[in-house]
Amino acid sequence: MRVLLLGGTGEARALAGALHPEVDVISSLAGRVPDPALPVGPVRIGGFGGVEGMRRWLREENIDAVVDATHPFAATITAHAAQVCAELGLPHLVLARPAWSPGDAIVVASDIEAAEAVVRHGFSRVFLTTGRSGTAAFRDVDAWFLIRAVTAPDPDTLPARHELVLSRGPYHHEGELALLREHRIDALVTKNSGGAMTQPKLDAAAAAGVAVIMVDRPPLPAGVRSVATVQAARDWVSSLRR
Q1: Are 203 and 151 in contact (CB under 8 A)?
Q2: What confidence tens digit (pLDDT) does each residue in 89-134 have?
Q3: Helix 75-88 crosses helix 50-60 at what angle (to 10 degrees)?
Q4: Are 90 and 77 in a shared domain?
Q5: Cα(107)–Cα(142) distance, rounded to whole angstroms?
Q6: Whole-model pTM?
Q7: CATH number of residue 79's parent domain
Q8: Is the pLDDT of residue 36 over 90?
Q9: Residues with Cβ < 8 Å from 55, sequence gap 6 or more?
Q10: SS3 assignment, position 111
Q11: What is the largest CA-CA distance in the chain?
């Protein structure tokens, strides 16, 4: 059995390792992060060329099932995979790590709404952790931003007053708390990515009394089956082999 594993997350790498070598898994990475952490087994890097390109690739590679373990905000590839698998009748599963509980966070639906919330509440020193593609919405906001991303955003999307930190988790509570205090942060802006790797920023914000603005996850396509753990995804793939 040949499985396409849409990856780029720690869960995807763990699943590839759990299935190898019993299952022929091809991991696919978007290619947006330089020097990515690679899973075990064959890897393809780059987009498929939309729905038509993905449909053609799945047929040419004789793929029997698709597991989507991409980032919870990778809505486009998730929608494409759901559509193509439905059309081709391929077994399809989404491995989605559990979301964070928003608690007292200001929950918004988009980066634009997050920027509006910063303005509305008068926050002046913002820790922005929505990724390289999320900075454009804040470009014209009159505040100072500490921006953390894995890769540098386009300079044209950056707000006038900012400091850029390029790093990749996992992060730890003590370090996150020190960062908030050192930069006198009064608001943290984050996407509800879930997972333990970046949870410490939320815990540190709570400890420091820093407000949290959280961008809610996009919904999964209608009718898509999803699981929350690597083990559950492994069991699903194993059930297809019986």
Answers
A1: no
A2: 999 999 999 999 999 999 999 999 999 999 999 999 999 999 999 9
A3: 50
A4: yes
A5: 21
A6: 0.91
A7: 3.40.50.720
A8: no
A9: 84, 87, 88
A10: helix
A11: 59
In this structure, are 71 and 141 located in the same domain?
no
Q: Which residues pair with 43 in a beta bridge?
A: 27
Number of structural domains, the chain? 2
pLDDT more than 70, % of the chain: 100
Q: Which DSSP string corresponds to 11-32? A: HHHHHHHHHTTTSEEEEEE-S-
DSSP letters, 59-110, are HHTT--EEEE---TT-HHHHHHHHHHHHHHT--EEEE-PPPPP-TT-EEESS
Provide the 10 A C-beta neighbour count for residue 118. 24
CA–CA separation, 242 and 233 (whole Å): 15
pLDDT tens, 216-232?
999 999 999 999 999 99
Contact 16, 37 (CB under 8 A): no
> Does residue 200 surpass a pLDDT of 90?
yes
Q: Compute the CA torsion angle 202, 203, 209, 213 (nearest 10 deg).
A: 10
**Using CA of residue 147, residue 99, residue 12, residue 171, what is the dihedral sign?**
positive
Q: Does one domain contain both 23 and 36?
A: yes
| Whether 139 and 199 share a structural domain | yes
Q: What range does the domain containing 9 cover?
A: 2-98+219-240
Computed over every residue of the chain, the mean pLDDT equals 96
